[in-house]
Amino acid sequence: MKIVVIGGTGLIGSKTVAILRQRGHEVVAASPNTGVNTVTGEGLKQAMAGTQVVIDLANSPSFEDKAVLQFFETSGRNLLAAEAASGVRHHVALSIVGTDRTDNGYFRAKVAQEKLIKASGIPYTIIRSTQFMEFLRGIADSGTNGNIVRIAPGLFQPIAADDVAANVADVALAPPRNRIVEIAGPERAPFNEFVARYLKAVGDPREVVREPEARYFGGRVEEHSLVPLGEARLGRIGFDKWLRRSRAAA
Ligand SMILES: NC(=O)c1ccc[n+]([C@@H]2O[C@H](COP(=O)([O-])OP(=O)(O)OC[C@H]3O[C@@H](n4cnc5c(N)ncnc54)[C@H](OP(=O)(O)O)[C@@H]3O)[C@@H](O)[C@H]2O)c1
């Protein structure tokens, strides 16, 4: 089967491409670097020819509120129009658990992306994932002032990128669900505790302070803002195992 992975050179994209190729599929890793740009439309029509499944794993180069909304809206419109024109049978996209439950600019852009998919008429599956473990350094950096990292105590359930990619590949090879499915890591604990464990494990001397008012991408983090409320498929890689693996790879 021919599968196009938009953002196929990114963190989740490259892992998903490798899994699908290993399973014998013809996979195009599409991104501006490989001549496919969902914002300008460059290379889209050619990439879609003969394609059965499209997996959208692209991310915005800028996380600024306006820029990220513009990215996901423009990219989504161009991509879905190209898919409709060439008869793609399943659109898979990666979104975020809690996108519609917290008020931050990045999450609003993901809601806009989801709306375009639902309205497109193309059979789809939207996978909402919790935060990637690989994202913890960036989260710590964004909450840092001097040697102090302020993080809210709301619940957090990060998932390893390898588990995300395995789930994305499984969903792409199954029939469209025409609904949202959720995935999360195997452990749930306060956000500040995960960040503190991460920094300690990598030998980072910054101190994590529990701060209920600390924002995440500009949004408030309530107790259940970032974790699945209903059924979710859980990743297999626990946080300690992921830390050991990432230290060994460093
Ligand atoms: N971070 C989290 O914790 C989290 C949690 C849940 C869901 N997600 C979602 O997961 C998805 C993948 O994230 P990631 O961290 O794997 O992304 P990433 O590593 O930043 O990769 C982004 C990819 O998007 C491509 N891209 C950028 N602009 C493009 C354009 N105009 N046209 C086509 N492709 C374009 C990039 O291509 P180049 O390499 O050519 O620039 C790259 O392949 C995102 O949609 C994100 O919202 C993230």
Describe, in plain words, how this protein is organized in 3D:
The protein has helices spanning 11-22, 44-48, 65-86, 105-119, 136-142, 161-173, 191-201, 239-249, and strands spanning 2-6, 26-30, 53-56, 90-96, 124-129, 144-145, 148-151, 155-156, 180-184, 189-190, 207-210, 215-216, 219-220, 233-234. With 250 residues, the protein is an alpha/beta fold. Strand 12 and strand 13 form a beta hairpin. Helix 1 (11-22) crosses helix 6, helix 3 runs parallel beside helix 4 and helix 5 (136-142) crosses helix 7 (191-201). The chain is globular and about 50 Å long. The two termini are 35 Å apart. Residues 6-7, 9-13, 31-33, 36-39, 57-59, 61, 75, 94, 96, 110, 129, 131-132, 135 line the site of NADP nicotinamide-adenine-dinucleotide phosphate.
Q: In sequence order, what are the helices and strands, one letter per element?
A: EHEHEHEHEHEEEHEEHEEEEH
The neighbouring-strand order within the major sheet is: 2-1-3-4-5-9-14
Shape: globular
* Distinct compounds present: NADP nicotinamide-adenine-dinucleotide phosphate
> What fraction strand?
15-25%
Number of strands: 14
Biggest sheet features: 7 strands, parallel
- The SS-based structural class is alpha/beta
Q: What's the number of helices?
A: 8
How large, in whole angstroms, is the Cα Rg? 18 Å
Mean pLDDT reading: 96
Low-confidence stretches: none
As a percent range, the share of helical residues equals 25-40%
Distance between the termini: 35 Å
